[in-house]
Specification:
Oligomer: single chain
Structural class: alpha/beta
Distance between the termini: 59 Å
Number of helices: 13
Number of domains: 2
CATH superfamily of the largest domain: P-loop containing nucleotide triphosphate hydrolases
CATH architecture of the largest domain: 3-Layer(aba) Sandwich
Helix content: 25-40%
Strand content: 15-25%
Shape: globular
CATH topology of the largest domain: Rossmann fold
Radius of gyration: 22 Å
Strand order of the largest sheet: 3-2-4-1-5-6-7
Length: 368
């Protein structure tokens, strides 16, 4: 196995968080040869166009533009092919990846893990997953209700932002000049409720020293995955039927599980009246009027969304289901005679809530 000597840094963060500005500042500092992959969802890669105008250091940068898709899904194979091509260049000392604003960092990191396992002689390794956080947005849209004059965006946007925060080993808190010291401390405390291990670095206009990004322990997929509040709740509370689990930060969490379906109208009412003490919730659910589809429920602060996903295995035609069960008999371990693999499993995380009241409300949403 060859020495893995080319660090890869993945920079994530929602649209407008400051990823490109961060890259501009990094390129101005760097004197070694960098390969830069820029992923933009549009047909014209505006971010790459901006980066091309950055100073005189760009003679040392090889840039790969990836458009019309996301490297965590539709462009995943193309993305890994570019990584492999760049790794063959012995002069490249680091690869930076600016992901699109809607990328899921866990999928990108997973692609690297698979690549490293399948290519043991590769020179590259995943060093850091950075989440660039717009602290002003977190303060306004996650920690505090928007005023009536402001536009309220779909709840799935802030949930994506929180997903990016949960899966990283470095948080760069950008736009700190837009908040007071007290407001910034409130944001930091709120972020710690979601992500307790990743280092936080505060900045203005994405001005961060490159050494802060590169001089740190290597990224560990399993460790970072376990950082998130949702995963901690699943790991610690799945078998706790008596009380919520409480961690050292005073955050309590519990898991609600029920095979029977939710009544859609009743559950939507529950979402409308969502307890303010809940910081984060996530899980898979199903409704009595749709026995076919898995629904993903996510809540972050005052934003919540329900997204239709794939089909339950038990919803497949019998001729397709039979060979799958034969090949994967473990599927039958939690199989219900009436509901098959359908179930509701929700993780709730918060401070100062009454678990019994939430469970009572959820039970009232179950179709009987």
């Amino acid at each position: 196995m060859s020495k893995r000597e080319v660090p890869i840094v993945v920079i994530t963060g929602y649209l407008g968080s400051g990823k490109t500005t961060l890259m501009q500042n990094i390129l101005k500092q760097e004197s070694r040869k960098i390969a830069l992959i820029v992923n933009d969802m549009g047909s014209i890669n505006i971010d790459a166009s901006i980066l091309n105008k950055t100073g005189n250091k760009l003679v040392q940068v090889e840039m790969v533009e990836m458009q019309n898709g996301c490297i965590c899904c539709t462009l995943r194979d193309e993305f890994m092919a570019e990584i492999e091509r760049l790794a063959e260049d012995k002069s490249i000392e680091a690869i930076f990846v600016e992901a699109s604003g809607i990328s899921e960092p866990s999928s990108i990191a997973g692609a690297f893990v698979n690549y490293e396992e399948m290519t043991p002689d590769t020179r590259v390794y995943l060093k850091t997953v950075v989440s660039v956080v717009d602290v002003d947005r977190i303060y306004r849209e996650f920690l505090h209700s928007l005023t009536e004059e402001e536009d309220t965006e779909d709840g799935d946007i802030i949930n994506l932002v929180i997903d990016q925060i949960e899966f990283c080993n470095l948080m760069i808190l950008n736009k700190t000049d837009l908040l007071t010291k007290e407001q910034l401390e409130e944001v930091k405390a709120g972020l710690r409720n979601l992500q307790q291990e990743a280092e936080m670095v505060s900045c203005v206009h994405g001005n961060v020293d490159l050494e802060v990004i590169l001089n740190r322990p290597d990224f560990d997929f399993d460790e970072v995955e376990a950082y998130s509040a949702v995963q901690r709740a699943l790991n610690n509370c799945e078998n706790d039927d008596e009380k919520a689990c409480v961690d050292e930060y005073g955050i309590s969490s519990f898991v609600f599980e029920e095979k029977r379906p939710f009544n859609r109208d009743a559950f939507n009412k529950f979402v409308d009246d969502y307890p303010e003490a809940l910081i984060r919730s996530k899980g898979y659910i199903w409704f009595s009027d749709d026995w076919k589809h898995i629904q993903l429920f996510e809540q972050a602060g005052r934003n919540a969304s329900i997204t239709e996903l794939t089909e339950w295995v038990s919803a497949w035609p019998e001729e397709e289901l039979r060979p799958i069960v034969e090949d994967f008999p473990d599927l039958k371990d939690d199989w219900d005679e009436t509901y098959g693999d359908r179930c509701n499993q929700l993780v709730f995380i918060g401070k100062g809530y009454e678990k019994s009241e939430i469970v009572k409300y959820l039970n009232e949403c179950i179709e009987v």
